[in-house]
Amino acid sequence: MKPCHNQEAGPDLERVLDVISDKGEWVGVLRMHSRDAAARSLCDLIVISESQNVGVGDIDRKAHYEDWDSFKFYAVLAVTWNSGLAVRIGIGRIRKSSWAEAKHDWRDVLLG
Prior knowledge:
This protein is mostly beta strands. It has one domain (about 1-100). It contains 2 helices and 6 strands; from the N terminus they run E-E-E-H-E-E-E-H. Strands 1-2-3-6-5-4 form a 6-stranded antiparallel beta sheet. Strand 5 (about 70-80) and strand 6 form a beta hairpin. It is globular, with a radius of gyration of 14 Å. The two termini are about 25 Å apart.
């Protein structure tokens, strides 16, 4: 999965990034803390919780998602690394089914 800039314009959306799978499919959204963070091409995602919801903000605008009643997702932190510490640069949501298909690993994380 990789973040990619939204095609939509507007001051509030400058920090919002779509997350695209290796297959080129939309799988979620990130809201970065700054324009500088949004300009990064890569960051790591850390799952912090799972949930199910309808009308969840930024995801709401993805009209192609057909079954809102069963939209299951993971809440994630977008992080970069500084001397072994994970530094949060954003938050987001990733479709649970897409996370299961993606390459990921388990590790202990120290947040700074």
